Amino acid sequence: MLTRNAILPDAQQIHALINGYSQSGTLLPRSLPELYENVRDFIVVEDEGKIIGCGALHLYGPHLTEVRSIAVFPQYKGKGAGRLLIDALMIEAERQHVSCVCLFTRIPDFFGHFGFRTATRQELPDKIYKDCINCPKLHACDEVAMVRGELPKYETVDLNHLNPNEFVRIRA
Ligand SMILES: CC(C)(COP(=O)(O)OP(=O)(O)OC[C@H]1O[C@@H](n2cnc3c(N)ncnc32)[C@H](O)[C@@H]1OP(=O)(O)O)[C@@H](O)C(=O)NCCC(=O)NCCS
Q: For domain 2-166, which architecture applies?
């Protein structure tokens, strides 16, 4: 197995991987046009030249990046592909000089293997204003926020009074 940066022709396989897990609500669905647009965020893992898994790193800025859409085809689970993907995404985060990596998950134990620790959404306003603000589960979120590295320093976000115009990040 080896990892590499995704390229446009990989988008259909990435689409199949993610959407195979989106009907159950495990992953957020991603459309093919959206994947084409963001394919440079993705790393894929191949086994004998065939894509068996993918994962993405969304950059918010030097203070924060987010691991997204990490998936391995069911028949290839448990063989180390997930670990290879996380390792490759962490190397990319380091290459980009990002100080904190976050993610939102229902399987925190998996990410705990890789040094992620539990945080709160309120500590990650970039995510709240990018995704949560439009999510029907804003006040009933069933995902665990996790981070690795130094949390960015922000004003605390009040989930009941979100106002994008007042989103002020405080950098120490
Ligand atoms: C999560 C997922 C990517 C893991 O991929 P994988 O290839 O099976 O993982 P690996 O074989 O590399 O496992 C790495 C380690 O994590 C552990 N692990 C794997 N899945 C786990 C889980 N769901 N919970 C806790 N630990 C888990 C493995 O036991 C292994 O530990 P070890 O190194 O001590 O033996 C894969 O199960 C998957 O695609 N799940 C569905 C999509 C999903 O839930 N994505 C995450 C959304 S946030």
A: 3-Layer(aba) Sandwich (3.40)
